[in-house]
Structures are given as structure tokens and as C-alpha cells.
Specification:
The protein is mainly alpha-helical. It contains 22 helices and 2 strands.
Length: 504
């Protein structure tokens, strides 16, 4: 009941003309960003983050979260109408969404995608509402050693549970940790890796790096691919919406299963990509008509969209409750909170109740309003795709440059942004993920400070990380996740050895 009363308080904070207007603007911008090839949720949030610096934290985070919700909705439009995944996780949506569009069922596919996205996000927001306060209260018991063990768990889980090659994840994360060391050491006051440059005294700004890694690199990739956009027209009528909604109860098992998968992989660093494919594959596995998948089956749209949106939304849970982002977008939002002077974690629920519960309330309202907007404006946003990319790309680059310069009013940051754009482009070409690098950029300095404080309190002994059951269990779990692949191979090998012996 306490969570419910706090949620009502959040709605009272949210329901002002100013914040409602920002929600609407954020959703429109988000759908626009999601529709454009080469952008997407993380990129849109990274590029548009600087425009929120002049706002109060509640207004800023509500607008940014609505940009994210809008981008999630917008990604389905390109996947279904043009067979171009607006996001990496929307690849699975193209398997049945585009065949439905080819069959003249584009409106049904889009309605199914938007509605299932709403359901997945709604389930995840319910989870955040009722679980996050409990996690935050428990985390108030944490000291420096416990916080470092949680950071270590996050880093190790990205390595052990991620879909990418382990060595590539480690390379990306190591580079991010190395970059956080540039500038002045907060403990000793000594300079590190500045190489005599006065511009590097303040370190590498997280936002500059993110704008380059996500915004500029995607522009370079899209220019290289020279996308030719040819798609199907779509206009959604109330009759079509009601028809799809009438069919949805038949697939309630798929919707529940995909929501559960998405929430789990959102809280852990599995991510929306893994969630969408897992949701799709399990739906196909347990379907009475598995051969219909890939040929325009509406269940093949419900499953990945529900899972992906549940994952993308639930990734905010560990970010708010523990200060640990569950996705690249959550990491960018975490960086924004730190810019506004807010420290995500357990104390956020105690010291900034208006902010936290206003944000959670905006998740409910933003998803409802976002669903209405995308259902009403599909033809408009689909027409955006017919604008030549050569006309759109310069505008995106200019907005990135303005955003990078505005952070510290330094020309050096623009050059740094371009450098990170090239790094992001190279990393994507060779398959090195950017999410671990982003995570390390955000958490690297905090993990270092927690480690140093732990070493001081433990007199230099690593035994501090096994000094009680809480920190010991988290640290042990971290190493298990780090070597999870090797452990699984070892168990499999033992099983193969023991099997002949059992037969004998």
C-alpha cells in the first residue's frame, strides 16, 4: 500500500502542464528518432541529453524517458513497413512483421507490435513500482565493500551472460575503465594520463564519449550502407485496432512468457536483443503451428516486441535501486542523473521521493500516451523514411556537435566526440560491443572509489570482500558469472566422463 500511495504522489508531481507538455514533445521526438535508420533509443537519448541541462531533474528525466519510450515504439515502424530494424532487438520483429506487410496486413502487424510493446513495458513498470523500493531499502545496509562487490557483479555479468564474444566484451570494458582514469585522481590529487594537455585535466566527459560512440558512429555506418528505403504504406483504423485486440487473449500465454523473459533479462545484463530472440524462439517452440512462423504469423510479432520492451523498461530497475544500469540506455540516463547532482541508488528513494515517483508515474502515463500517438501517426512517421538520408544526416551531425560543445563550452570536446565516433564505427565493424564500454565509463570511477575505501577499511586485505555473508555471496557470484562458460564446459565434461561409468 505504501508503494501505491507513493505512486499517487508521483502522479501529483507529474500532472502539471509543463511536464505533460515535455512528455508529449519527448514522445514525438522519440518516435522520430526510432523511425530514422542509424538512430534509436540509446543514440537519441545521448544526442538529446544536453538540451535537458537547463531543466530541473524531474522534467529532464521525464522528457528523456519519454524519448526512450517513443524510440522503442518507432523502431517497429521501420521493421514492419521497410524490413529495416530500427533497433538491434527489432530484428526478430521483421521475421513475421514484414511478411504481414507484404500480405497487406501492415496495419494489423503495427497494431500488434505497439500493443504488445505497451503490455511488456506495463508489466516491467509494475515490477519497478513494487520491487524497487524493497531493493533500495535492503541496499541501505551496503558499505563500500558491498557496493564494490555489486559493481564487480555488474561487470562480470556483462562478460558471463552477454551474447557477444567474451574477449571482445572484456576489451570494450577495459577501454572504458582506462578512460575513466584520465584526469585528476580524486583521492591523491595526482594527474593521470593527461600527457601535458590542459584539456584532459577534467577527464573524458561521459556525455561527449556517448554522443560520439552512438550518434556519429551510426551516421558513418548508415552512410556506408547507403540505405535505399522502399516500404509499404499503412494507416491504422479503429476497426483494425479492435480486431487485433480481440485476438490478443488467444495469445495470453505468449504475452506472459515474453514479459517474464524480458523482465529477467532486463534486470540482468542479458538485454533486449537476447530477450526478443528468446521470446520469439520460445513462442515458435511451444506454438501449435511452428511452421507458420516466418510467413506472417501475428504471434511472431507479439512475442519479440513484448519481451524486448519488458527488458528495455525493467533495465531501469537496478539503475534506480542500486545505481547500476541494466542496459546502454540506462547507463546514459544514469550519467544524466549524475550531471544533475543526483546519485542513483538506495538513498535516491529516501532523499528524492518526488523525483523517483514522478519518474515511475511518467512510465505509466508515457506508455499510454505513446501508444495513442503511434497508433494515430503511423502514416506521418512512415513518410519520414522517404526523405533522403543525405538531407537528414547533416542535421544529426550538427545536433551532436552542438550537444558536445554545450556540455563544457570547449572546442576540444567536439574533436573528442569525432574521435569517439571513429572508435565506435571501428568497434561496430569488428563486432566489439559498445554497451560494456558505456557501462565502464559510467561506473568506473565509482567502482574505483568503492574499492579504495574498501581497501582502507580492510587494511589492504582482499578478505574484506568476504568479511560477511552479504558481500561474500555477491563477490563469489561475480566470479561464478565471470567464469560461467568454463564452469559449464567443466560440468559437461564431467557428465561425459561419468556417463560411460554409469552404464558399466
Amino acid at each position: 500500500m505504501e508503494a501505491f500511495s507513493l505512486l499517487l504522489h508521483g502522479f501529483s508531481v507529474l500532472l502539471t502542464w509543463k511536464i505533460l507538455g515535455l512528455m508529449f514533445v519527448g514522445l514525438i521526438l522519440g518516435v522520430f528518432v526510432g523511425v530514422l535508420p542509424g538512430l534509436g533509443g540509446p543514440n537519441g537519448v545521448a544526442i538529446l541529453l544536453p538540451i535537458t541541462f537547463s531543466m530541473d531533474p524531474t522534467s529532464a528525466i521525464v522528457m528523456l524517458s519519454c524519448i526512450y519510450w517513443g524510440a522503442l515504439f518507432g523502431g517497429a515502424i521501420t521493421s514492419i513497413l521497410f524490413n529495416i530494424p530500427g533497433e538491434a532487438w527489432s530484428v526478430a520483429t521483421t521475421f513475421d512483421g514484414y511478411p504481414m506487410a507484404q500480405q497487406g496486413k501492415a496495419a494489423e502487424a503495427l497494431t500488434a507490435a505497439f500493443t504488445s510493446s505497451f503490455i511488456g513495458s506495463f508489466v516491467a513498470v509494475l515490477l519497478i513500482t513494487f520491487v524497487a523500493p524493497g531493493i533500495a531499502s535492503f541496499a541501505l545496509r551496503f558499505g563500500p565493500a558491498e557496493f564494490f562487490s555489486v559493481y564487480l557483479l555488474t561487470f562480470c555479468s556483462f562478460v558471463g551472460l552477454g551474447r557477444e564474444d567474451k574477449h571482445k566484451t572484456i576489451i570494450s570494458m577495459a577501454l572504458g575503465l582506462l578512460l575513466t582514469g584520465i584526469g585528476m585522481d580524486t583521492v591523491s590529487g595526482t594527474l593521470r594520463m593527461t600527457f601535458g594537455s590542459t584539456d584532459l585535466l577534467r577527464g573524458v566527459n561521459f556525455l561527449v564519449a556517448v554522443i560520439g560512440l552512438f550518434g556519429i558512429s551510426e551516421i558513418l555506418l548508415t552512410m556506408e550502407e547507403q540505405l535505399a528505403l522502399k516500404g509499404h504504406a499503412a494507416a491504422i483504423s479503429p476497426r483494425t485496432v479492435l480486431k487485433v485486440w480481440k485476438e490478443m487473449p488467444r495469445y495470453w500465454v505468449t504475452l506472459v512468457r515474453s514479459s517474464a523473459i524480458g523482465c529477467w533479462l532486463g534486470i540482468t545484463p542479458g538485454g533486449a536483443i537476447a530477450a526478443s530472440f528468446m521470446g520469439y524462439n520460445l513462442a515458435k517452440r511451444f506454438s501449435k503451428d511452428p511452421d507458420g512462423f516466418g510467413k506472417g504469423k501475428i504471434e511472431g510479432v507479439f512475442a519479440p516486441e513484448t519481451a524486448a520492451h519488458a527488458s528495455g523498461t525493467s533495465a531501469l530497475l537496478p539503475m534506480l535501486a542500486l545505481g547500476i544500469p541494466g542496459s546502454g540506455t540506462a547507463a546514459i540516463l544514469l550519467g544524466g542523473l549524475m550531471v544533475w547532482g543526483l546519485n542513483p541508488g538506495p538513498l535516491l528513494f529516501v532523499e528524492h521521493k518526488d523525483f523517483v515517483w514522478g519518474l515511475i508515474a511518467s512510465m505509466y502515463l508515457g506508455n499510454v500516451v505513446g501508444l495513442i500517438i503511434v497508433l494515430a501517426t503511423v502514416p506521418l512517421f512512415a513518410s519520414v523514411l522517404r526523405v533522403p538520408f543525405a538531407a537528414i544526416a547533416p542535421m544529426i551531425v550538427v545536433s551532436c556537435a552542438i550537444g558536445a560543445f554545450a556540455i563544457q563550452n570547449a572546442m576540444f570536446d567536439i574533436w573528442l566526440m569525432l574521435l569517439f565516433g571513429v572508435i565506435g564505427y571501428v568497434f561496430k565493424k569488428i563486432g566489439i560491443p559498445l554497451a560494456p564500454l558505456t557501462l565502464a565509463l559510467v561506473l568506473g570511477s565509482r567502482a574505483e572509489d568503492a574499492f579504495r575505501l574498501s581497501m582502507i577499511s580492510g587494511s589492504g586485505s582482499f578478505g574484506i570482500f568476504w568479511s560477511n555473508w552479504l558481500v561474500g555471496s555477491i563477490t563469489t557470484l561475480s566470479f561464478i558469472l565471470l567464469f560461467l562458460t568454463q564452469i559449464e564446459k567443466g560440468i559437461s565434461w564431467i557428465g561425459r566422463v561419468l556417463r560411460p561409468a554409469a552404464r558399466a
